[in-house]
Automatic annotation (TrEMBL), chain A:
Coiled-coil intervals: none
Organism (species): Chelatococcus sambhunathii
Transmembrane spans: 12-32, 38-60, 72-89, 109-131, 165-185, 197-222, 229-253
Keyword annotations: Membrane, Transmembrane, Transmembrane helix
Keyword ATP-binding tagged: no
Protein name according to UniProt: DUF3100 domain-containing protein
From TrEMBL, chain B:
Membrane-spanning segments: 20-40, 52-70, 76-97, 104-122, 134-159
Name of the protein described by the UniProt record: DUF340 domain-containing protein
Keyword Transmembrane helix: yes
Keywords: Membrane, Transmembrane, Transmembrane helix
Length: 274, 163
């Protein structure tokens, strides 16, 4: 099983060249701003890169399967975690120069981590009352269901349980459309003109590298003159989420969602998915 | 159905970091990112090289810390901390690092990761998304919106109070 790393140079070379080509095309297209009513829809190179990756994914386009074999796509999975690291480092470097402003915003930065529980406020009622889902609703709505949250559900219920199915569903959907949602949402919320741009920035740190990139990219495009502050606050908040996310899920979000489900979901509701 | 696939190896990384193979793969990523940055900003790879070398070094230091720390934090958390400390004004070399990484567009650093992510999607992940159906798509959008807007509201309120 360990051969996919060192063993075959061929598939790895093909993969990296494909990525290089996708990156170059995406950066050539560049940022596109589509003005609509209350704000602007911002299209970013990271979105094209992801979309192009999906288009050329051998599971989608059979023709590329001949050059991008199983070893290559398996390596691609490993490369995601590696490739996000220089980005995370670059992001961290935006914090140092702004450290005084970060400390000044400290209370807001720490308390807004609790705001991640907002998913329960919005997604749980939709899942249980509107869509009449069963225990899938617990796994689906208790958190943003990225890797640490998924690991927690796997540990507690197993991924073959209803809760696991709900979490896996949101994980897979988030993987497919999360970058797009997080690129579109902040400029539109900013367009409402209600919220402090610092609040919009520090909320971008939800614990996923690609969502962080999309969210800050969209926000910086909407408010370019606050770029340095936006990046620094988002980076600081993302670190806090890395450090606290798992524990917030374990001790707050999951018990709260469980309790809500026991309290208000009809007792006879079984698994309702498909 | 094999449910293992989608978790990848992220949560389990902890002690199992293979520094040598990561170091090589990171070199590839940095090279791709340098070209992407060139196209995005017109800053030549040569001119941006010192900044990229800084990011590379910070990443390696972060990985080493993650590997040997007695308690678990994701390696990206350590990498962020190293990058923050290295750029705080007054820390030796901070001015140089800030100047150097300034040549690198932050979003161009993320583009390679998303390209890999698109290519890495497995048959299973497409299958799960399809099988979960439209209800899960609606819930997922509510989850993302709720997670974001919940933080926005609290942050905004606290900022109004504290100024």
């Amino acid at each position: 099983m360990a051969t996919s790393r060192g063993g075959a140079i061929g598939p790895a070379l093909v993969l990296h060249l494909a990525v290089l080509a996708i990156v170059v095309v995406s950066e050539i297209i560049g940022l596109i701003r589509v003005p609509i009513g209350i704000g602007a829809v911002i299209l970013l190179p990271i979105l094209y890169a992801f979309a192009l990756g999906i288009i050329f994914n051998p599971n989608v386009l059979k023709a590329t399967g001949r050059v991008l074999n199983h070893d290559a796509t398996k390596l691609a999975g490993t490369m995601i975690t590696i490739a996000i690291m220089p980005f995370i480092a670059r992001f961290g470097t935006t914090v140092g120069p702004q450290i005084e402003k970060i400390i000044a915003a400290g209370p807001a930065l720490i308390l807004q981590e609790l705001g991640n529980l907002g998913t329960i406020l919005i997604a749980f009622p939709v899942a249980v009352f509107l869509l009449r889902m069963g225990r899938e609703a617990i796994g689906a709505s208790y958190s943003i269901d990225r890797e640490p949250n998924l690991a927690l559900i796997a540990d507690k219920y197993g991924l073959n349980s209803p809760e696991g199915a709900g979490a896996m569903g949101v994980y897979a959907t988030g993987t497919l459309i999360g970058t797009f949602v997080f690129a579109l949402m902040p400029p539109l919320v900013h367009g409402l003109g209600i919220f402090d741009v610092r609040a919009l920035a520090m909320s971008c740190g939800v614990g996923s590298g690609s969502m962080l990139a999309a969210c800050t990219g969209g926000l910086v495009a909407a408010v370019p003159d606050q770029k340095d502050l936006i990046l620094a606050l988002a980076a600081a908040s993302n670190i806090l989420t890395y450090a606290t996310g798992l524990y917030a899920g374990l001790f707050l979000a999951l018990p709260l969602t469980e309790w809500l489900y026991r309290t208000c979901a009809p007792a006879d509701r079984a698994s309702t998915m498909h | 159905m094999n449910n293992e696939i989608a978790i990848s190896d992220a949560p389990a990384e902890g002690r199992a970091i293979d520094l040598a193979s990561h170091a090589v793969q990171l070199l590839v990523v940095c090279a791709v990112a340098l070209v992407g940055n060139w196209v995005a900003t017109n800053v030549s790879p040569l001119e941006a090289l010192p900044g990229m070398a800084c990011l590379y070094a910070m990443t390696i230091v972060g990985l080493v810390i993650a590997k040997y720390m007695p308690f678990y934090l994701p390696s990206v958390a350590w990498i962020s901390l190293v990058a923050i400390i290295a750029t705080i004004p007054g820390v030796p070399g901070a001015a140089f690092v800030n100047e150097a990484v300034g040549k690198l567009n932050f979003l161009a650093m993320a583009t390679p990761a998303l390209a890999y992510a698109g290519l890495a999607l497995t048959k299973n992940e497409f299958a799960i998304a399809r099988k979960s159906g439209w209800k899960i798509v609606i819930v997922a959008i509510c989850v993302m919106f709720g997670t974001y807007i919940g933080s926005v509201v609290i942050a905004d309120l606290v900022l109004r109070i504290t100024g």
